[in-house]
Design brief:
- The complex is a heterodimer.
- Chain A is 68% helix and 0% strand.
- Chain A has twelve helices and no strands.
- The radius of gyration of chain A is 22 Å and the shape is globular.
- Chain A starts with 26 loop residues before the first helix and ends with a helix.
- The N terminus of chain A is likely disordered.
- Chain B is of the alpha/beta class.
- Chain B folds into two domains: 221 residues, P-loop containing nucleotide triphosphate hydrolases (Rossmann fold); 68 residues, Alpha-Beta Plaits.
- Helices cover 41% and strands 28% of the residues of chain B.
- Chain B has twelve helices and 14 strands.
- In chain B, the strands form three sheets. In chain B, strands 6-7-8-3-9-10 form a six-stranded mixed β-sheet, with helices on both faces. A four-stranded antiparallel β-sheet of chain B has the order 2-1-4-5, with helices on one face.
- The N terminus and C terminus of chain B are likely disordered.
- Classes of the chains: A mainly alpha, B alpha/beta.
- The interface between A and B is large, with 45 and 61 residues.
Chain lengths: 271, 335
């Protein structure tokens, strides 16, 4: 039995090494692999991007006509940024269900035994969320632009960037929830459904929070999505005022960092 | 690709132990396993559901950490050097390797890339495996739409994409119909014979362990209770000869005479039936019947059975593996 070097690596244990992979891909390559794998089903069936949009589109069609014109712009000008943010939240918060499916059928286990790092398994999945989010935002904006919505492309693009960061964070939290709900689907859906509407309402997505009582505006102040939505409304109006943009970027950033930290912890303890 | 000389053990465990705590009670799934498996072996872990086979496999493949004890796989520690272990092994789990929303071809390429194969090498290997496992025409369909047998073939293809020198298969044939099970066993045997791949699989099918493994490790309640080739395990137990007689006094006389003529036989008599178990009893049976007839105790019925692995398990544990497996499955289905 030999204890000499194999492939230049000192062998510290006396069992015989078997043939191994030619070279280890780094974090970036692994993450790209995971992300493109996650995007394949969407690429093969692009229509699935609609699933997370059903509710936002219903609100857009049946709720926005009831809104009185707010301030300077049309009701739609005020409502659309919130609906785009709502779509991002819906899509990213549901994305853990795909992982849960893979945990049940076995492909998640296969990936855990593959050389892919735990961090790339989480980050690759989370980054993938950006793609459906952008598609959904583009669809909504394409739908509303013929109506009383003024398109400010620069602002919309920066707004999409902020939402991309937010989606990565929410997606990571959703994966963490999926991993924690192993073998208990109901747990995932109960928590996701319980949280989503309070978060939306406390962000002023459906109705303005201007006249809210003190306790309600206190809760809204704690909601990162509220800052993101405020920033989106300014950006979609073509305003880059830093006093709304920066809190929005910070809100999205906080969610992203929190999501990645919690998500990584969950992925590392997954088995 | 680099091939290294394969001489010593590829797997070594020392005191490998895993406990699970559920509802405040501790289950000792694997208890102090000491094991060595050499390069080129084809080993089956055989035991009823819940015996600790899969838990052992999950520790060896880095999915779960041991509670205590150590395991080295392909030269690496399964706790301290997990990623090195993962790069060195192939793994086919109980579930499906391919995501049900995915296409088989995409999954093969992705798996190959995760092992650092170049894009062109990954695609070439994918086509090779699709062809070898007769999956080419199903490669671009959603995995959810494939049959159970097609999905299992895809699982194995994914496990083999980087031509691992050491392959783990966890219950590879569970849920397959007899035809697909036979095909799978043939593929495993061929892989072992043609590539010299070291293969470790778990099974609760006696016939499967008997048919394909060079070495059978019988596990029960988290302990290794036997470890040998299937034929050695069976011949150690000996053949079972059952003789029927016209009446009880004849049977009593026959039992005595048989005991004297076959050394080391264990003999039991129930009414008019005498059962005799001894090594090579099948060879001795014709002579014994002639001898008994000459002595005035002619047998009216004879049945000769070689030992099966179930007999081995029954002998070791006092339970039938077939029954334990069935019971466990029924309980599992009811739960």
């Amino acid at each position: 039995m030999s204890t000499d070097t194999v492939l230049g690596t000192p062998v510290t244990t006396p069992t015989t090494p078997v043939q191994r992979a030619p070279r280890a891909p780094g974090f970036a390559a692994d993450t790209w692999n995971v992300m493109t794998r996650e995007l394949k089903p969407l690429l093969r069936e692009p229509a699935t991007v609609i699933i997370a949009m059903v509710q936002p589109l219903v609100f857009l069609a049946l709720f926005s006509p009831l809104l009185p014109d707010v301030g300077t712009g049309s009701a739609l000008q005020w409502f659309v940024p919130g609906i785009v943010a709502m779509t991002a939240l819906m899509g990213a918060s549901m994305t853990g269900s795909n992982l849960m499916g893979e945990m049940v059928t076995g492909s998640h286990e296969r990936l855990l035994v593959s050389p892919l790092s735990r961090s790339s398994l989480l980050v690759g999945r989370a980054l993938k969320e950006v793609v459906p989010m952008l598609l959904q935002a583009a669809i909504i904006i394409a739908v509303v632009t013929p109506f009383s919505f003024d398109l400010h492309l620069g602002g919309v693009l920066v707004g999409a960037l902020v939402l991309a960061v937010f989606s990565v964070g929410v997606g990571s939290l959703s994966f963490a929830l999926a991993l924690a709900s192993k073998d208990q689907d109901w747990l995932f859906w109960t928590i996701q459904q319980t949280l989503i509407f309070p978060v939306l309402l406390l962000a002023g997505v459906l109705l303005p929070l201007d006249g809210a009582p003190g306790w309600l505006s206190f809760l809204a102040d704690l909601n990162p999505l509220a800052y993101v939505v405020d920033a989106e409304r300014a950006l979609f109006n073509g305003s880059f005022a830093l006093d709304t943009l920066l809190p929005g970027v910070a809100g999205a950033g906080v969610v992203a960092v929190l999501g990645l930290v919690v998500g990584l912890r969950a992925m590392r303890s997954s088995s | 690709m680099t091939f290294t000389q394969q001489t010593g053990p590829v797997i070594r465990t020392q005191g490998l132990t895993r406990h699970f705590t559920r509802h405040k009670s501790t289950v000792e799934a694997v208890r102090g396993l000491d094991l060595e498996i050499s390069a080129g072996e084809l080993v089956a872990f055989l035991g009823p559901n819940g015996a600790g086979k899969s838990t052992t496999l999950r520790m060896l493949t880095t999915l779960i950490a041991p509670t205590s004890g150590t395991a080295e796989v392909a030269g690496y520690d399964v706790v301290a050097q997990r990623r090195d272990v993962r790069r060195s092994i192939g793994y086919v789990g109980q579930g499906n390797a391919a995501g049900h929303q995915q296409r088989g071809r995409d999954e093969l390429v992705s798996q190959a890339r995760s092992f650092g194969m170049s894009r062109s090498a990954a695609h070439a290997r994918t086509e090779e495996l699709l062809d070898a496992f007769d999956l080419t025409e199903h490669a671009d369909r959603p995995v959810a739409g494939l049959s159970g047998g097609q999905r299992r073939r895809l699982d194995i293809a994914i496990g083999l994409v980087h031509t691992p020198g050491l392959l783990f298969l966890d219950e590879p044939s569970t849920g397959l119909d007899p035809q697909n099970r036979a095909n799978l066993q043939e593929q495993v045997r061929r892989l072992h014979a043609e590539q010299g791949t070291t293969i470790v699989l778990t099974t609760h099918y006696l016939e499967e362990a008997d048919a394909i493994a060079d070495r059978v490790i019988v596990i029960d309640h988290g302990l290794v209770i036997a470890d040998d080739s299937a034929s050695a395990l069976k011949s150690g137990l000996g053949d079972l000869v059952t003789l029927g007689f016209a009446d009880e006094p004849t049977a009593v006389a026959a039992a005595q005479r048989a005991g004297a003529s076959i050394a080391g036989a264990s003999i039991e008599r129930t009414g008019r039936v005498v059962t005799l178990r001894a090594a090579h009893a099948a060879d001795a049976a014709p002579g014994l019947v002639t001898d008994l007839a000459a002595a005035g105790a002619p047998a009216t019925r004879i049945e000769v059975a070689s030992a099966t692995l179930d007999d081995v398990f029954l002998d070791l544990t006092g339970r039938s593996l077939r029954e334990s497996a069935d019971t466990a499955t029924t309980e599992g289905a009811a739960a």
